[in-house]
Design goal:
Helix content: over 70%
Keywords: Cell inner membrane, Cell membrane, Membrane, Transmembrane, Transmembrane helix, Transport
Distance between the termini: 15 Å
Radius of gyration: 26 Å
Largest sheet: none
GO molecular function: transmembrane transporter activity
Protein name: C4-dicarboxylate ABC transporter permease
Number of helices: 30
Structural class: mainly alpha
Pfam families: DctM (PF06808)
Subcellular location: Cell inner membrane
Strand content: under 5%
Oligomer: single chain
Order of helices and strands: HHHHHHHHHHHHHHHHHHHHHHHHHHHHHH
């Protein structure tokens, strides 16, 4: 059994930690949002000043009040478009020499797009006093400005995120214009270009809608907080604490990866950034103790995608949910607790089973930091996070919480700098740290702002044409047909496991999950969530799924796309660090994320897992929680080929089937699942005792 076991690497083997420059290049390779161009010095200074000013504006408004919504969104979008064309080149060229066709090192086309986009974005706030008279009857200049903004947005998102989202937006615009030529239920009268621009540009249903508002009002502040918290050492503190807590156990570095990613995810919502940040330390360590390279990359990727579902930051989606659902942020964060735990629990179980299967060791005491010393040295960096959570729980607005926590980060940075270098050097270090942090925070928000504005085009077409409900009827019709057929097959069983209604919901969820993953292969999680809420949430609404549950379902499957081949960017970034086959790493990362794939189905059928749904009871919660834990463990064992000893293929099949039954809403199915697991568990324990003897 041990002949094929990977052997731990020694110091002479081909594994090394990547330099900071190599890690940055790796992030840029797999995350187009970070592929910033190199500007000539005058333009670089100008861009830095604008970026810093944008962060200062948002920091001030978070603490002292936000202007009228359209004005606030227009200012944010105008500054963003200005900066996008300064920061991202048209075809990936990092640096352009100044010339007649490129004044200051920026092509003339970029100057035109930059100024035209900023002007068109600021035009709506400028005419706001007359806007009520323009909506429904736009002037020719309104149509011209709206057309310019749509075109500029398409190019801005193409540069900063790639082709998929602009193509989707163009298809939706074409659907709105050519509606009379659509087949079947999708047909509609069609809209003139003037009406399309009116709806997308002059109303709050399109570009200046909820998506852009959430980015400008909430998300920017929390991105800035994450950057500042990292600068004061909170991210490194999380990694050190995770090492001290989990490193000593079997397969130690892999468990450190899971725990540190869970902690780091509380302040950062980027899968790729989390993979590179923690993976630069954990992936080489995993390989050294004997994990295969592709598995080490997959562990880090699967763990890091959990950052987007981990409170309190959760990327941008938590703040979008409070706008769409009209509930407090604390409700969203509470609902996210158990599903986030289930994801990390699922990855941790598979990591543990793999370590046992391969016979891998933990790290020795000499290889691990001391938890007490780590906390003693870095406790100050935790203060801003504590303040953030405390203000949120007090019922204050999210942007107020961001203001106080960013302020705390600045104070902590000043204390650290003064303690390290004295008062004079401390002041200089603090000013430099705030300058760099505010610039980086604003820069990291550029792509997501442009995407949110363009997603507003998609949402505008959905509200203009009603296509969301048409798709809902199509999907539920297909699912109902499948359910009726499968129900006939199941009628031969002595007990009813699932009725037609339950099967209809199950097949609807499967179809919705597939669409979410496919959409997520080409566009970021936030954009995917916004589109799927408009298109897929009505599908689940027809089947009486609570809105909160439906939103969480499409969100989780959008996140899963980061580790789903063929476009598993987080896994590919991990493979770059590990020197592993990227596709193999992606497949393994998806397998490790089976818990995340299973959990959304669980909380749709058993909403008590979200803690805040209608009709919540603790008895229902504990029943659902126990079934979920057992189901995830059984499924993890089946895919890992190990429980307490190697599994027979039939045992793997039984465990996989039992896992599905354990998470079913029917108590009979749960009992059958437990009964199916017991013989395998007893045989495995006996085999483990024989092996140990």
């Amino acid at each position: 059994m041990t002949q094929d076991r990977p052997q731990p690497l020694t110091d002479g083997d081909d594994i090394r930690s990547l330099s900071a420059e190599e890690l940055q290049a790796l992030e840029e390779k797999f995350d187009p949002e970070l592929r910033f161009r190199v500007l000539a010095k005058p333009l670089a200074i100008a861009a830095g000043v604008i970026l810093f000013a944008l962060s200062c504006y948002h920091y001030y408004t978070a603490g002292f009040g936000i202007p009228q919504a359209t004005t606030h969104r227009g200012l944010h979008l105008g500054a963003t478009l200005l900066l996008v064309f300064l920061s991202f080149s048209a075809f990936g060229r990092k640096e352009i020499r100044p010339s007649v066709l490129a004044p200051g090192g920026l092509p003339i086309t970029d100057w035109i797009l930059m100024l035209a986009g900023a002007t068109a974005a600021l035009y709506v706030p400028w005419i706001y006093a007359d806007l009520a008279f323009r909506v429904g009857n736009p002037l020719p200049i309104d149509v011209a400005m709206g057309t310019i903004l749509i075109v500029v947005l398409l190019e801005a998102v193409r540069r900063s995120m790639g082709w998929p989202l602009p193509v989707i937006a163009l298809l939706f615009i074409a659907y709105a214009y050519f509606g009379q030529y659509m087949p079947g239920i999708l047909v509609h009268p069609g809209a003139s270009w003037s009406n399309i621009v009116n709806h997308l540009y002059l109303t709050s249903q399109g570009i200046y809608g909820t998506a852009l508002g959430v980015i400008a009002t909430y998300v920017f502040h929390f991105v800035l907080f994450g950057v500042m918290a990292t600068r004061i050492g909170l991210g490194q503190l999380f990694i050190d604490i995770a090492s001290a807590l989990a490193g000593r156990y079997a397969g130690g570095p892999a468990k450190v990866s899971v725990v540190s990613s869970a902690l780091l995810g509380s302040i950062s919502g980027s899968s790729i950034a989390n993979t590179v940040t923690t993976g630069s330390l954990t992936i080489p360590a995993m390989i050294r103790i004997g994990y295969p390279r592709h598995f080490a990359a997959a562990v880090e990727a699967a763990s890091s995608t959990g950052g987007q579902i981990t409170p309190p930051v959760m990327g941008a989606v938590a703040f979008l949910m409070i706008e769409y659902l009209g509930v407090p942020l604390t409700t969203i964060l509470t609902a996210a607790l158990v599903p986030a735990f289930m994801h990390f629990f699922g990855v941790l179980v598979q990591v543990h089973l793999e370590a046992r299967r391969l016979g891998l060791r933990g790290l020795s005491a000499s290889e691990l930091p001391n938890a007490w010393k780590v906390l003693k040295a870095g406790w100050l960096s935790v203060v801003p996070l504590v303040i953030l959570v405390a203000v949120l729980l007090s019922g204050r607005t999210p942007f107020a919480a961001a203001f106080y926590s960013i302020t705390a980060c600045i104070i902590v940075l000043a204390i650290q700098q003064i303690m390290a270098g004295g008062l004079a050097e401390g002041i200089k270090g603090t000013v430099r740290g705030v300058w760099e942090g505010f610039i980086l925070g604003a820069r990291q928000s550029l792509a997501v702002t442009a995407a949110a504005a363009l997603v507003g085009v998609v949402i505008g077409v959905v509200t203009l044409t009603g296509v969301g409900f048409k798709i809902a009827y199509m999907v539920t019709g297909v699912a109902s047909g499948w359910a009726t057929e499968v129900s006939g097959w199941l009628s031969v069983l002595p007990v009813e496991i699932m009725g037609v209604q339950t099967l209809t919901l199950l097949f609807t969820l499967i179809l919705t999950a597939i669409v979410c993953i496919l959409m997520g292969c080409g566009i970021p999680t936030t954009a995917n969530y916004i589109i799927m809420v408009a298109v897929a949430a009505p599908v689940l609404g027809l089947l009486q799924v609570e809105p909160l549950v439906a939103h969480f379902f499409v969100f989780y499957y959008g996140v899963l796309a980061d580790v789903t081949p063929p476009v598993a960017m987080a896994a590919y970034a991990g493979a770059g660090i590990a020197g592993a086959n990227a596709f193999k790493a992606g497949n393994t990362a998806f397998r490790l994320s089976m818990g995340k794939a299973l959990v959304p189905f669980i909380f749709v059928f058993q909403p008590a897992l979200l803690l805040v749904t209608d009709g919540f009871t603790w008895s229902a919660f504990f029943l659902a929680f126990s079934g979920a834990v057992l189901g995830i463990w059984a499924l993890s064992a089946a895919v890992s080929n190990w429980l307490f000893a190697p599994l027979h293929w039939l045992e793997r099949a039984v465990l996989a089937f039992a896992a599905i039954l354990l998470v079913a809403p029917n108590i009979t199915a749960t009992i059958i699942g437990i009964v199916l697991i017991l013989p395998t568990a007893f045989r495995q324990l006996a085999a483990n005792r024989r092996q140990t003897a």
